[in-house]
Amino acid sequence: MIQINLLGVPKPKKGKRGGGGGAGPAMPSGEGINPIILILLGVVIGGAIWGWMWWHVNSEAQRIAKETKVAQAEAAELATAKTAYEEKEHQLRAYQQRVKVIDDLRKAQSGPVDLLNEVSATVGGTDAVWLNKMVEDPNAVNLDGNALSAHAVANLITSLRSSGYFQAVELKEAIQDERVKDLQEFNFTITCEKKRGGQ
After folding, report:
1. In a domain, 131, yes or no
2. N or C: fewer beta carbons within 10 Å in the chain?
3. 149 lies in which domain range?
4. What is the pLDDT of residues 132-187, one digit of tens each?
5. Number of domains in the chain
6. Looking at the domain assignment, is residue 184 inside a domain?
7. Quick check: is 39 in a domain?
8. Is 69 within the bounds of a domain?
């Protein structure tokens, strides 16, 4: 007998599942998350991590570049300051050297003059004494002269010792001049040792 389905609903087939009416459309079984979703999620997370790392590295690079630029500017300023300092030090040393040379020349010029003036004043201040010759070397001054008495020679030696120019004054010779008949006259030689580091 032929049956016609007027409702348009397919007649369920008899199968092994049978039992009470027709089965609905197949539902996916609960076997886990779709792998495509996991892949997409991994790509998103990986991209986020990579982006954060790139931003961090780029920020660090910019910070280092900025600090390097500041350090280079400071180094350039220090180099300029050091050069200026060294130039000032060189000028100061050159000035001090010139002053020392001038002082040395002044001492070299005034030393003999002061010494001559001192000896002249000492001899001039001692009665009955006069000089015939004065010879100076780096360490001593040798005086040759005449005196009308041995006492006058002793007074001259005392005056030379108290002058402050000499550390030792020694009488080398004092001989009475026999050629002078009318009065007593002595020819003397005195060595005056200069002070160390003095005139």
Report:
1. yes
2. N
3. 115-194
4. 888 888 888 899 999 988 889 999 999 898 888 888 999 998 888 777 666 788 89
5. 1
6. yes
7. no
8. no
